[in-house]
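Journal club prep — side note

Before the paper discussion, L.F. wants everyone to see what a predicted structure for a comparable chain looks like in token form. Sequence:
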Amino acid sequence: MLFHFYKYQGTGNDFIIADNRNGQYSSLTTAQINALCDRRFGIGADGLMLLNEKAGYDFEMKYFNADGKEGSMCGNGGRCITRFAYHLGIHRETYHFIASDGPHEAEIDIDGIVSLKMKDVDHIRKFHNDFILNTGSPHYIRLVTDVMDLDVYKKGHDIRYSREFAEEGINVNFVEQLDNNTKIKVRTYERGVEDETFSCGTGVTAAALVSFHNETGFNEIEVTTLGGNLSVEYERSENDQYHNIWLCGPAERVFEGKIELR
């Protein structure tokens, strides 16, 4: 069977996306998805998404990691699939879709910036001198002084496969705080990809929440990743809860094609 795909990227976090509203790709296997995401022998991507029909929503986002296994929420993926929906002719002022962690809203402005509303976060856990939280996917945050000098693969791999996290896995983010914490640099080791990615939306969101600069109220954090710039807006309440969280940045179509599924 020919697989008709589209390649999208959001700050270098790249995805294979397919229109599956008629269900023709629902039987994709783990091995097939893994092969499609392979950067040497396939199309190459950090993950694969299917845009499905879902009653009561504009679409459903079905996300798979590059290893072929179904994944948790992907923030940049959510922004890219919203852009894909627009290119399919699904035009909305505000998109309403459902993903693995529940309902989401998204908007596209006139400059093509896609803003995605993330799930609320009601707890950030201190772990030794680091932080753990879930922004749709589990994230480990470590604050560092010079993120560009780090061996992110080795340090991230060591934490991800440590005794506490080896079974379920965790995404590991290294964060350098700048300008009174209103600007940060983030590098991420992603589970499922098992390598550093150019950007990670849920990781950027997690890093921004940890790096808040106001005790309460509205916050806006500018984030630099290897693949480009994002921003995270959110509100923080007195009881250390975070809501009205928006991940904002570009999402672009790279190319489309067809490949024989094996």
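L.F.'s comment for the group: Residues 75-87 form the longest helix (13 residues). Keep this in mind when we get to the figures.
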